[in-house]
Amino acid sequence: MTKTIFITGASTGIGRATAKLFAAKGWKVIATMRKPENETELHALNNVTVLPLDVTNTRQIHEISQQALALGDIDVVFNNAGYGLFGALEAMTDEQLVQQMETNFFGVVRVTQAFLPYFRERKAGLFITSGYEKGTSQTARVPLHF
């Protein structure tokens, strides 16, 4: 049976590379990004579905998670959307800090909340979350008991 991975932040970097790797390994991939209309390479892969998702938009998280689940079973959710904010802390505006928290923290929480009932019902599923610290990528696997 073919497995499926749902990836946020798949337009560049680790998210894009992960989508290509899993597609090459025969997985079905649901690659999400804020502007899928700008994507060409992932659209060309047979087992990749590209969907729009801004993880700061709670309505869109709900809609896209339901649309993804309607495509079939999902085995892994890779919370990858995020960005680094660099510079002196005192030079950062409150708006910049709030926007980063909306994306990097609350986006992860809300996407996880959207899929958690489904994983709990199936008694199976894996969440993988990547983050950025001091310009390096960090990935955490968080086991959740169903």
Tell me the strand percentage band: 15-25%
Taking strands numbered 1, 2, ... along the chain, how are they ordered across the largest sheet?
Answer: 3-2-1-4-5-6
Give the % helix.
Answer: 25-40%
* Helix-strand topology string: EHEEHEHEE
**Global shape:** globular
**Total count of helical runs of at least 4 residues:** 3
Poorly predicted ranges: 134-146
Give the helix/strand layout:
Elements: E1 4-7, H1 13-24, E2 28-33, E3 48-52, H2 58-70, E4 76-79, H3 94-122, E5 126-133, E6 136-142
Parallel strand pairs: 1-2, 1-4, 2-3, 4-5
Antiparallel strand pairs: 5-6
Report on this structure.
With 146 residues, the chain is an alpha/beta fold. Helices cover 37% and strands 23% of the residues. The protein has three helices and six strands; from the N terminus they run βαββαβαββ. It has a six-stranded mixed β-sheet, with helices on both faces. Strand 4, helix 3 (94-122) and strand 5 (126-133) form a beta-alpha-beta unit. The longest helix has 29 residues, at 94-122.
Task: Give a brief outline of the structure.
The protein has 146 residues and is α/β, with parallel strands linked by helices. The chain is built from three helices and six strands, in the order βαββαβαββ.
What are the salient characteristics of this protein?
single chain; alpha/beta; 37% helix; 23% strand; disordered C terminus
